[in-house]
Design goal:
single chain, four-stranded antiparallel sheet, about 190 residues, alpha+beta, globular
Amino acid sequence: MFEIFAQYLQSKIELSDQELKMIEEVCVVRKLRRNQYLLQEGDIWRFNAFITKGCLRTYSIDDRSMEHVLNFAIENYWIGDRESLLNGTPSRFNIDAIEDSTVLLISKDNFAGLMKSIPQFQDLVNLIIERSFVASQDRINNSISLNAEEKYIRFIEKQPQIALRVPQHMIASYLGMTPETLSRIRKQSLKK
């Protein structure tokens, strides 16, 4: 599974064989079955996780037992709870596998060591954080300024590969609507 991560890294930055070996030595492979948790609410998240296979989601459950999906992640995506990782506080979120999945875990300390030892790895991490921030801004703006149909269309346009792999009720939760509303929107869009 490290080969997939190595290909990802080499498509973004130049690394020597020695640097790749340093990275490989700190990676731990974790296989998840469908519906298995990577992180449960209340646990402290201590890793940076890269997905080599599968599809996962990050979500919370409110006091009415309603799920609220924050994001989906597939191959070549990173996933985790940054707040819990950075502050050492219990997570407010769950992360579970929508499909059988494999992730590479790098502990917080080992990740920091890689960033210190490999400057271009630090540059990649900064770029990922910047893009993540932009994506979060876009998601917040969409959620407060678009109607339900526009949200769905934007989701399909921006994340078509995820839309094909995720159950409709989870997409509805991600978009902040009921499954019934999403079903109605999908039927209307098929008629157009």
